[in-house]
Every structure is written in structure tokens, then in C-alpha cells.
Amino acid sequence: MDKNYLSGSSSLILLSLISRKDMYGYELIKELEILSDMSFQFREGTLYPILHKLENMRWIESYITKAETGKERKYYKITRLGLQQLHEEKKKWEEFQDSLNKVLGGSRYVGQF
Amino acid sequence: MSVNSKDDFINCVVKQVKFPFDRKPIAKELEDHIDQLESFFLSTKCSPDEAQRKAVLEMGDPLEVGKSLNDVHKPLLGWLWIFNKYLCILIAIYSSILFMTKVYTTWENSRERTPPVFEGESAFQSIGIDPVEIQIVYDKTIYQKIDLHCETILFERILLNSDGTMILLYQSIKEFDPFGLDVSEYPIQNMSTLVHSNRRKIRFNPERVKALEGHRILVTQDESLLEGEIVLEFSHHIGVSRITIKGE
Predict the structure, then answer these.
(1) For residue B150, how far is the Cα from the chain centroid?
(2) A15, A43, B53, B68: least CB-packed within 10 angstroms?
(3) Is A44–B59 a contact, with Cβ atoms under 8 angstroms apart?
(4) A2: DSSP letter
């Protein structure tokens, strides 16, 4: 899928994934690939600037735990603010989808006289 | 820009991040990601070198990733955050010290201190009497307590100089009150009167209330104090307490 489609809705996608369970970067990418049937693929390093931006916005927060390898791993979890943002973005997305469908379907509003 | 090794990729990314304190956590997070990609490629029968090369390639352009990370990790905000963090720590330490000092002081004040062991001369010197004029004619330990609300006044010692200057040593023992809710203090100098056996009433000098080695002193001067009996009348909310501080 074209990267441009993804970049506009990256926060919606990531917030939605993190809202299901706490996740780390690599896990997020793999989950995204599985859920989108490999349609959503991007250069994996570019995930981190987006995640860190979401963290700066206080929509997600991170914590460190030990992974099975014994190494430290950074997990992300959604905040209450993040859940509100996710709700708003979902609503906006649905409105956009609705408008797009109307345009593509050619239906038109006809006012009453 | 393309790099082949994990270290080169990470170094190239973190070099773009201007805020130094964020470089290490970013490097760790990227390293963990590359390690997992590498394990995945190793499981697909790639050689270790090939697995690392492919893992790094999956990560994308390190310059692009580094610059985007730098946009998020603003140095000014980072420094402000660090400054605030240390400021908070300092304030917390400072307030704990203040609180502990307060608790210690109130604990100290809630205990009875040992009677003063200093020489009577030093008490007179502390109120500004010339050493050559000091000739103590009366020095007696009293040890008389008056229990008041939240406070006990313990009168300890009476000292009389030949010029009629009288020093009364006392200590105030407060209830243990670490939060400092009760800040009231009895103005003993105003509430006390000395009654001489000849019925004359003598008041303490309110300006000459001093602290001396953890004890307090009340001062007055009247030559008639040298002779006869003296009773201290202390008026408080319960009533009037009378203590004979000097016999005939």
C-alpha cells in the first residue's frame, strides 16, 4: 500500500493497536502486518519517530521490562488522553469515509422546495 | 544513505539527535528491534552477516529516521525537562530537610532539658552586665512546674546580683507537634508578677527576655528583691499559680 495513505492515519492505527494491549516496537510492526494481510508495510525504523511523538503528546506512555532474552525492552501503553484521541480520530475517519463513499458513489443531497 | 551493520545504523541515527540524554535510550530501543529482525532472518536460514544486513535494510534510511527523531526530541524541551526534574528533586530534598528539622525541633521542645550547668556569672554577662559589677548574692535551683494547655513551664533557677538584678531561668516544654499546628507561646514576662513579702509587686522587663543554652531567662531589677520572700504569681487561663522562688 502507498506510504502516503498510511502516514496520515498512522496515529489512528498505532493508538488502535496499543489500546488492545501494551506492545513494543517490533511487535507493533508484526501485528500491523498480520492484521492488514501485509498491506501495511513500511521501513521499520520510521515507526519510532511516530511512537515518540505520540508519547510527547501524552497519548501513550512507555515503560521498560526485561524481555525473555534478558535484555531490556521498551513497551508502550495507551493513556486516558490517548483513548480520547483514538475515539475522536475514529469518528473523524468514519466521517471522512462516509464523505468519500458519497463522492465515489455519486449520491447527491437534494434539498426540498 | 545506506549502512550495512547494526552499529553503523544506530550511530548514524543517534548522531542526528541533538539532545544527548535521549541518545542512549533511542539506541537501545533500535538495537532491540534490529536484534529481533536479525533473529527472524536467521530463522529463514540466512547467514549471520546476511541476516544483519537484511535487518538493517528493513529499518530504512538512518538519516531520515534520525532527523525525524530529532524533530520529536527537541533539545530545549529536553533540557527544560531535565532542569525541572532536578529542581523537583532539590525541592523535595529541601522540604524533607525542613520537615525533619521541624520534627526534631518540636521533639526537642517536647522533652525536658537538663538543668543549666553554666556559672551564674555567664547568665548576667549574657544580659549585658559588666563582669566587674557581677557579685551573685543568691543562686538557687527551684524546679517548679506549671502545666498549661499544650505546654508545661518549668521554672529552674533564680539568680540575684548585688545591684538587685534578678534572673529567672525557665524552660517551656511543648507537646510533640511535628506539624506545627500550635504556634502559640505564653508571654510569660507579661503574665508573671513578683510579689515581695512587703506586698510590693514587681514586673519583669519585657524587653529582656532571652534564650540561654536552650533555656530562657526573665530579667528584672529592684533592690528590694535582695531582702525578704519573693513569690512568683503566674496568671494563665486556668487561674493563678503561685511559686515561692526565694525564701526569707
Answers:
(1) 22
(2) A43
(3) yes
(4) -
Which residues of chain A are within 8 Å of residue B61 when distances are taken between CB atoms? 43, 45
Residue among A49, A72, A73 minimizing CB distance to B65: A49
- Contact between B160 and B136 (Cβ < 8 Å): yes
B32/A26 touch (CB, cutoff 8 Å), yes or no? yes
Contact at CB, A25 and B60, closer than 8 angstroms: no
Over residues B42-59, the pLDDT tens digits come to 999 889 999 999 999 999
Beta-carbon separation of A49 and B71 below 8 A:
yes
Name which of B9, B29, B65 is nearest A46 (Cβ-Cβ).
Answer: B65
Cβ contact B51:A44 at 8 Å:
no
Quote the pLDDT of residue B198. 86
Helix (H) or strand (E) segment spanning residue A33: helix A25-35
Q: Where in chain B do CATH 2.60.40 domains reside?
A: 120-246
C-alpha–C-alpha distance, residues B102 and A56, integer Å: 40
Confirm or reject CATH 3.40.1350 for domain B120-246, answering yes or no. Answer: no
Q: What percent of chain B has pLDDT over 90?
A: 37
Least confident of A44-48, B157-161, B190-194: B190-194
For residues B32 and B47, what is the distance between their CA atoms, to the nearest angstrom?
A: 19
Asked whether the beta carbons of B163 and B133 are under 8 A apart, the reply is: yes
Domain spans, chain A: 3-103
- CATH, range A3-103: 1.10.10.10
Q: Flag whether residue A53 sits within 8 Å of chain B, measured between CB atoms.
A: yes
Please answer yes or no on whether B37 and A26 come within 8 Å at the CB atom.
yes
